[in-house]
Amino acid sequence: MKTFYCDLEITLNVIGGKWRPLILYYLIKGPKRTGELKRLIPTISQKMLVQSLRELESANLIIRKMYNQVPPKVEYSISEMGMSLEPTLRALCDWGQNYAEKNLSKDEYRRLNVE
Question: Is Zinc a UniProt keyword of this protein (predicted)?
Answer without folding.
Answer: no
